[in-house]
Amino acid sequence: MKNYLLIAMLLPGILGGCATYQTKPLDMNADMAHRIPSLTENASKIPLIASLTHHFNPDDGLNIDEVAILAVANNPALKLARDDVKIARSKALDAGLLPNPQLSAGLDFPTSTTPGSTFTATNFGLSYDLAPLLTRNTAEEIAESNIRKADMVLLWQQWQVISQAHMLFAKSYYQKKLFQVLTTYRDILSERHARIQKAFKDGNLTLDSTTNDLSAFLDINRQIDDLTRKIHQTHWELSRLLGLSPDVALNLTGDVTLPDIDQKHIQTMLTQLAYRRPDLLALKAGYETQDLKYRQAIIQQFPAISVGITQASDTSNVHTIGPSITLSLPLFNQHQGKIAIEKASRKRLYDEFENRLMNARSTISQILADQSLLKTQLKTVSSATISLKNAVDNAEKAYATGNITELAYTALYARLFHKTLEQLHLEQTSVEQRIALQTLLGSNSCMTFNDKRNS
Q1: Which CATH architecture has domain 39-447?
Q2: Distance, CA of 246 to CA of 191 (rounded, Å)
Q3: How many CB atoms lie within 10 A of CB 136?
Q4: What is the CA radius of gyration of the chain?
């Protein structure tokens, strides 16, 4: 009876520490935000943002830093990554908890009338499994390593989101510039097309002589229509990245300024790549976790053992008490399979880390080589564009005074138009590669952004 009373006294205390269940219904009307949230972010917490403190103010437009801050703060995918970090920390808490002892109790009621067997037999046992204690420290180390991995995965996803925000900002910037170039050229072709059509109606031109003009006019309108669709697509992609509804107007402001690439600094950073890239650090943490699992599997090949103490009485009212031990016999399963799996998994992570590091260095080297080529191409194209611009300015004056024909002026402007498109394409390619380089290296030193609102 005393034992039963002891159990009854312990149960309220044990149950008092239990968590209670709370429902959390799904939001069946979940949607993207229909307005830009007001934020004041400490940009030192935002990776790849150069400024220490940035006051987020969308009222005067979003520059590239503000787009990146909003993306990190509001991107739906990053919310899931942050949830994964919380899960990893919860698992670490679970790994640090000691296993509970096991309490057993039983009654045996006599069913015969044999003399001396009229007492109710009882048995109480208290046991403890020692096996988890052997691997507890390793389990805690595994949990801590998983936290580091989750933190690095989150940081790498932040880098990716910031890179996407920069890419889409630059893409939108050059699409706007291209739209201005196309519409300006269309206006020139539109005036020429109207005059040619009037001359054709007046009988001063044949149908064959208007074919080239009509083809050029239709082609420029097609290009503008295609670009308009691309502008809308960029807006939708950026809105999704920022966690905003597509109906939210994004007033993007600011310019993109590209400094010269510091080859010496980049080469130094390449040697430190394995110590600074979050994805590589996540793989390193994953490898450390797997190494610990391999060690844990080796420890677990030792026989599982439980110790305890048992108090019992039989139906003849004889009371006994004594220790007990339970030991598994490793006759058929000595954890050979588990050890082999963990060892092979460790080897795969080793190879994955090596492969990722080599690919990262190869990609960076390729970008640097492309940047050198693009720099030469841009210099040549920019020089040609300036020369053509001067020639067009002179031709415009000559055309106004009647010294050259409209056809000659339009042909010269067409050359300037196509050369300008080529320059914009090269500039955009260079910018996108440098944004990628910034992400691959994890440094702002390769690229700075100029906000013209402060200039």
Answers
A1: Up-down Bundle (1.20)
A2: 36
A3: 15
A4: 37
- The CA–CA distances, whole Å, from 82 to 71, 74, 207 equal 14, 12, 66
What's the sign of the alpha-carbon dihedral 367, 368, 372, 373? negative
Is 194 exposed, middle or buried, given 0-12, 13-18 or 19+ CB atoms closer than 10 A? exposed
Q: Which residue has the tokens 């001359």?
A: 199
Between CA 355 and CA 352 the distance in angstroms is 5
Q: Nearest-CA neighbor of 436 among 166, 156, 230?
A: 166
- Distance, in Å, from the CA atom of 117 to the CA atom of 120, rounded to the nearest integer, reads 8
How many Cα neighbours within 13 Å face the side chain of 428? 18
**What does the block give as tokens for 154?**
């989150």
What lies within 8 Å, CB to CB, of 296 at 6+ separation is 135, 138, 139, 142, 342
DSSP-based three-state secondary structure for 403: coil
pTM, two decimal places: 0.82
pLDDT digits (tens, 9 = 90+) for 321-369: 988 888 888 888 888 888 999 999 999 999 999 999 999 999 999 999 9
Q: Which residue has the tokens 């103010």?
A: 57
